[in-house]
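In response to reviewer comment 3 from the previous cycle, which asked for concrete evidence that the modeling workflow produces usable outputs, we include below a single protein chain processed end to end. The sequence was submitted unchanged, and the resulting structure tokens are shown without manual editing.
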Amino acid sequence: ELITATGTGEDQSAQEFGHYRKVREFLEGDSPLMRLSEGQRLVRMQYVSKEVSEALVSQITKGFGIDVNIIFGDIDIVADAPIGGIVAIFDGEPAQIDAALNYLRQRNIAAEVLKEG
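The workflow returned the following structure tokens.
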């Protein structure tokens, strides 16, 4: 199931995260890269703060017992601050994935589920 953002949020997100358009093309073209197994979720994480330098992927894989497979990444330094994000496949128990997403959001990381397997 493809999950899409609505309104200007999607347009703004596309401008803020360069690979988002490429990810959308892969999703719409049914790329093998984007085929998910049952229970997997394709997640876009976007951040604009010092948290980008923390080992967030490592923290959620260890802390919540899920696998995170990074598909795309785009991080730049603008005005001495790291901005950007990654798109990754989250794999694990649904409750653990939900907990990991909540953890990211509490750390001011925008975590958007783009597709569910």
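The radius of gyration is 14 Å. We consider this sufficient to address the reviewer's concern, and the full set will be provided in the supplementary archive.
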